Amino acid sequence: MLHRSIKRNHTVNKKSAQIHELIFLTLTVRSIESSRSEPEMEVVVDSTPQTSSFATENQSSVTAIVVRLIKESLSSILTRFHAGYFRISLSLGGQALLWKTLIGPTDDRSTLRDVLHMLHPTAFLVLWSFALFTLVLLSLLYILRCLFYFKMVKAEFLHHVGVNYLFAPWISWLLLLQSAPFVSPKTTCYLVLWWFFAVPVVALDVKLYGQWFTKGKKFLSTVANPTSQISVIGNLVGAQAAANMGWKESAVCLFSLGMVHYLVLLVTLYQRFSGSDRLPAMLRPVFFLFFAAPSVASLAWESITGAFDTGSKMLFFLSLFLFTSLVCRPALFRRSMRRFNVAWWAYSFPLTVLALASTEYAEEVKGSIAHILMLLLLALSVLVSLGLTVFTLLNTKMLLPDNDPIAASLHHLPTVSA
């Protein structure tokens, strides 16, 4: 019985094992079929939005950096820029007027004038356009300075040198107006532009000349320096432009206003009162303004009278004497010539108006000595202007130095109204 019981248990265990194996196989088959019937899931990682967002943020940061650099650069330019940079436009405007006179109609039949008349008018047009572009650029910069740094402009008005260069933009525009190839002096456009440029000169006259004899700290004996003659030149250039369009009375008014103050100023500068000699060595080239004023006066008087008469000749000889006196003293300018700066442009305009006056003198007297003098001054004027243009283009990084005597002093002046 024991043997039968063991055999029966073995049979049951074997059948139980077969049943378990059958169940396992059934579940395996169903699992395989279920996995085949279900769709496969595909996982796709899309990195496009992240890449696009990163590129946008990068582009925005680059734009912000560029804008910030532009603002910092413009701020640096405007804080160092001042009206003294209009020396450049003064020189170029004077050159444009000189060459318009040389290629214009004349009674002088000398060989030199015949050669100059052979020059193509396009060369003069290029020169005038370049002078106009320079003046427009400088004017835009100064307008921005007035808008964003008006306190510095007010401080410039209180500066004994800087205030005189506030005349320079208007003088430059008057010179370009007289030399314009497409505006006749008899037109309404010329008249309107003359008023627009001459009125600020008279307004500055009232303010500046009134200070010379009414305010103790602004007495002429304490603030006079060679740049003070720019105010005189402004009146004389305005008189010349008025005479060209036939306004004789206005021309005589401006001429008398300029000449009376020129005589007072010349005597004051000759006497060299204590406290008046406050001109930095870097600004020594402005001494050439000593002969610029009588040169412009001779041209203005010629425009008023219609001839280069005795009065114009006397003023021309005075300017020629002052020019010779300065040329014979090169040590006076030695320190200012050690390194290029924008003050060098103060050499060009006086030489240009002296050459222009010599041209009118040579046309009047028609002598060989006068023509030789004209040739020498003309060559010197052109060479100096051309050399300064080349130096400026090659040394653009030195146009706004940290040691500019005018710009540096403006940061230490009070900004109250004068």
Automatic annotation (TrEMBL):
One of its GO terms (molecular function) is voltage-gated monoatomic anion channel activity. The keyword Transferase does not apply. InterPro entries: SLAC/SLAH, SLAC1/Mae1/Ssu1/TehA, Voltage-dep_anion_channel_sf. It is found in: Cell membrane. It comes from the Eukaryota. One of its GO terms (biological process) is intracellular monoatomic ion homeostasis. Pfam families: SLAC1. One of its GO terms (cellular component) is plasma membrane. Its main location: membrane. It is a multi-pass membrane protein. The chain crosses the membrane at residues 123-150, 162-180, 192-210, 249-270, 282-301, 313-332, 344-362, 368-394. Keywords: Cell membrane, Ion transport, Membrane, Transmembrane, Transmembrane helix, Transport. Belongs to the SLAC1 S-type anion channel family. Homotrimer. Slow, weak voltage-dependent S-type anion efflux channel involved in maintenance of anion homeostasis. This is S-type anion channel SLAH4-like. It comes from Herrania umbratica. The lineage of its organism: Eukaryota, Viridiplantae, Streptophyta, Embryophyta, Tracheophyta.
